[in-house]
Amino acid sequence: MAELLQFISSGLTVGAIYALVALGFTLIYKASDIINFAQGEFVMLGGMTTVFVALAGVPLPFAALIAIIVTTAIGLALHRFAIEPARGAGPVALIMITIGASIFLRGVAQIVFDRRFHSLPPLFGADPIQFGSAAILPQSLVVLASATAIVTLLWLFIDRTLLGKAVLATAANRLAARLIGVDTRRIVDFSFAVSAAIGAIAGILITPIALTSYDVGTLLALKGFAAAMLGGIGSALGAVVGGLLIGMIEAFAAGYFSSNYKDAVAFLIILVVLVSIPRGLFGRAKVERV
Amino acid sequence: MRALLETRLMPAIVVAVIVIILPLLFPSAYYYRIGVLVFIFALAVVGLNLLMGFAGQVSLGHAGFLGIGAYSVAIGPIHFGAPSCLFAGAILSGALAFLVGRPILRLKGHYLAVATLGLGLLVAIVLTNEAGWTGGPDGMSVPGLVLFDWSVRGAYTWYWIAGTTFVGGFVLALNLMGSPTGRALQAIHDSEIGALVLGIDVARKKLTIFIISAMYASVAGSYLALFNGYITPDAAGFLRSIELVAMVVLGGMGSIVGSLVGAAVLVVLPQALTIFHEYEQALLGLIVMVFMIFLRQGIVPSIVAVLDGENDDPGD
Amino acid sequence: MMILETDRLSITFGGVRALDGVSIAIESGQVFSIIGPNGSGKTTLFNLVSGIYTPNDGSIRFAGEMVTGLPPDQLARRGLSRTFQNLQIFSRMSVLENAMVGRHRHERTGILADLLHLPSVARQNEVTREAAHDALARVGLADAGKRPAGSLAYGALKRLEIARALASDPKLLLLDEPAAGCNPVETQEIDYVIRSIVKDGITIVLVEHDMRLVMNISDRVHVLANGRTLTEGTPEQVRSNTTVIQAYLGVHGSKEAVRAFD
Questions:
Q1: What domain count does chain C have?
Q2: Which residues of B touch C157 (CB under 8 A)?
Q3: Do C116 and B175 touch (CB under 8 A)?
Q4: Is there a contact between A70 and A49 (Cβ–Cβ < 8 Å)?
Q5: Chain B residue with the nearest C-alpha to that of C111
Q6: Which of residues A13 and C242 earns the better pLDDT score?
Q7: Do C84 and A287 lie within an 8 Å CB cutoff?
Q8: Could you tell me if residue C30 is inside a domain?
Q9: Counting Cβ atoms within 10 Å, is residue B269 exposed (0-12), middle (13-18) or buried (19+)?
Q10: String of b and e for C73-105 (b: at least 16 CB within 10 Å)?
């Protein structure tokens, strides 16, 4: 029983991070039909930048803020300098560009930072909280609470603000949105910026638990993407549900089956979902006209 | 002479000539080694190019097949006492491609890209984890190739083996492109529905080319392992898959000659940059981005376009 | 012989009944036209008959064989060919190669022979090339063979699609608005091509808005409205049917229909 609770708690914690990455994917995908593989790098940059800025003597809260700003700027730059110039290229070319960007960011990170693992001090101390026979890290609760807050804020924003409606409009029909005066380019800028910020925050939050290094991005991107696919790419709710599900399935697979194959879970899920229900749990089927 | 110049196999002849003449330009014996690597990767790239550039599909996990080919020539002799069988890997890869190909190839665009990505990653994970068979993350050593009492070793020998195999694979690709199957594949690339209503079994053709391209990669992987005498799971990894696609794009999607160019650039570059080894990843990422944004057609088609442009009559 | 029969064919898309209980019977060698306003289900009917959609109700019989639900490539291999309203040209291939692909169902070399370029492949390529060239000649594109298909003008592309369909030696040819989007000159070229195909005795099912062409060459005209059959008959019967005239030919269309017989 204690084991079960343990798996659930660690599964939910890492699942919350996958959910945030998946949310970032979904936001960009909704606004521009692009699958952004550099999403994982945003998480990496959040953690690593905070670590190194703090090492340079800046107090932790400001280091985190700087990291978020820097990552957001990089997200914007990615859109303006890598994606925008390639407008009109097919979906595969665009994926390749974001993959290239992710490899590039990773390569630069290993030069600017280093190749070692780094950590950050947890927000409320490192002593696990006892829940009966299970122990949960306070940082896990921070992650879960923050993820919930971010998702709620995002939902409120999309649902209640004009800008949010503009994002929805762009997602539904780009041309129509432009015709009613929405600056779709700014909307996509915005989606990249917000996704980068969300990724950075996720990175900062998870580092005290899972450490960070220059190459954590790739695996995170792939798992976040698996989560988005499972939930239904284009569905924010799906992204969150997918992320939590994958986190839990991973934790259970690692616990009861084999910890070596933990990473394989996400990829197996991608294949199974794509082959059987390509639109995922909450996605909508597309109707093609000939 | 004109008949010779216009012969269908002209590109293959050009490439064969390059293979033969290249050693004359080598400043030292070390360059044979680079040549071997270039031809090995060029072979894999030809297969991938047939799948991506010609038939219009995508595979972001192709290094998985390369890895299967590589490990099969190690596992065979070491765990089964079987003689190095070059084609065991190709058969295994072909079988895997056959099994997963049908469901996966129903997908298009970014769904297909991600599915193949997932496949490649799964292969890499299995190769990394099954340490009992594969030696785990540190890899395993590969017994040298022995053909009828002849111990095949050395960069010089492998240069000619890899070079000949590459030219052979090149010829097969040329043949395919000029055949009924080739036309069907090109049609599928441009319009699946147009191909369907002309009686083309689109699903079957896609599966066929997927299997063929998997086998190309597998043979390349086998050669790589035998030549290096060692193999690690990196050979099947995500970065390697992206490198292969980068080679396709660099050389020119759909340009079989471009396969050699793309492979040459991305094999020679890290060699030339040994001092800047840590910049390798950043550079690869940059190259992929720049080419996909600005030079999507690749080097060879761009050159051809420029040459064609210069040959236009001003009066046209 | 009845080459194509549908029996109460119906299909629903997301709550909309796009086609409702349509039955047609086409005799071999006929020119059968389907007319009706936009949205009446003409292209849907084509897509059903050519296997792109599967009907919810009803059946399709081709050359006596039940073919309901068969995919397009299997129908094509039985001799059913079609063109598209929204061109599906292979733009990266040359004009000749496009027509050569049309021969696919008659080509007999396997993958191994293709890879090794056995003599059978060279022979097959030659035979295919000739047949493709003949098909191009029939639509007036004999000289354009080497050009990339993407470089052709719109009207020529429409003719290329017809050539490609012809190259497959079809028993039945479905032409989906072959003159749509064409300027008057291009429309005339298409008309000419269709008439010459008709003279060759190929069974044609035509969806077209050009009333003059329809009334002039059709043996029978089937009128669709809102996914249902309104009426069917000879061109004379249809053009003088008041319901059809009122609702679908409109004032302009009915004038054209009358002029068709001048």
A1: 2
A2: none
A3: yes
A4: yes
A5: B181
A6: A13
A7: no
A8: yes
A9: middle
A10: bebbbbbbbbbbbebbbbebbbbbbbbbbbbbb
Residues C230 and C176 occupy one common structural domain: yes
End of a domain among C113, C146, C163?
C163
Q: Is C114 in Cβ contact with B181 (below 8 Å)?
A: yes
Cβ neighbours around B44 below 10 Å, total: 32
* ipTM score of complex: 0.89
C86 to A290: CB separation less than 8 angstroms, yes or no: yes
Domain containing C101 equals 89-163
Q: Which residue has the higher pLDDT, B222 or C188?
A: B222
Q: Are A74 and A42 in contact (CB under 8 A)?
A: yes
**Does any domain span residue C84?**
no
Q: B46 and chain A: CB distance < 8 Å anywhere?
A: no
Q: Does C190 share its domain with C223?
A: yes
For C126-158, the pLDDT digits (tens) are: 999 999 999 999 998 999 889 999 999 998 999
Q: Which domain holds residue B215?
A: 2-235
Which chain C residues are closer than 8 Å to A284 by Cβ? none
Say whether residue B48 is in contact with chain A using an 8 A CB cutoff.
no
C68, pLDDT greater than 90: yes
DSSP code string of A130-194: EETTEEE-HHHHHHHHHHHHHHHHHHHHHHHSHHHHHHHHHHH-HHHHHHTT--HHHHHHHHHHH
- Residue A172 contacts B where some CB pair is shorter than 8 Å: no
CB contacts of A100 in chain B (<8 Å) are 242, 246, 284-289, 292
Do C123 and C146 fall within a single domain? Answer: yes
C181 and C249, same structural domain?
yes
Q: Are C206 and C175 in a shared domain?
A: yes
| Inside any domain, residue B118 | yes
Give mean pLDDT, residues A179-190.
84
User: Do residues C182 and C232 share a domain?
Assistant: yes
Two tokens at B83?
Answer: 């003689």
Q: Are residues C3 and C70 in the same domain?
A: yes
C71 interaction partners in chain B (CB closer than 8 Å): 196
Nearest-CB residue to B175 (from C73, C100, C114): C114
Pair A50, A231: CB distance under 8 Å: no
Give me A161's structure tokens: 């603000």
Same structural domain, C262 and C174:
yes
- B196–C115 C-beta distance less than 8 A: no
Confidence (pLDDT) at B4:
52
Cβ-Cβ contacts under 8 Å for C214 (sequence gap 6 or more):
C33, C35, C206, C208, C221, C235
Kindly determine whether residue A290 and residue C13, on different chains, have CB atoms separated by under 8 Å.
Answer: no
Question: At CB < 8 Å, which residues of chain A contact C?
Answer: 287, 290
Contact C104 B184 (CB under 8 A): yes
- Measured CA to CA, the distance from residue C39 to residue B176 in angstroms comes to 43
If you ran DSSP here, which 8-state letter would residue A127 be given? P
What pLDDT digit, counting tens, does each position of C101-122 carry? 999 999 988 999 999 999 999 9
- Residue that terminates a domain, selected from C163, C192, C225: C163
Per-residue pLDDT tens digits for A152-169: 888 888 778 888 888 778
The number of folded domains in chain B is 1
Find chain B residues with C-beta within 8 A of C81's C-beta: 197-198
The dihedral of CA A100, A102, A103, A107: what is its sign?
A: positive
Does residue B278 lie in a domain region? no
CB contact under 8 A, B199 and C100: no
Q: Which CATH class is domain A2-276?
A: mainly alpha
Nearest beta carbon to residue A107 from set B121, B126, B281: B281
Kindly report the CATH number assigned to the domain that includes residue C255: 3.40.50.300
Q: Please give the Cα distance from C154 to B241 (Å, whole number).
A: 40
**Gyration radius from chain A CA atoms:** 19
Sheet holding C220-225, edge to edge: C80-82, C172-176, C203-207, C31-35, C220-225, C228-233
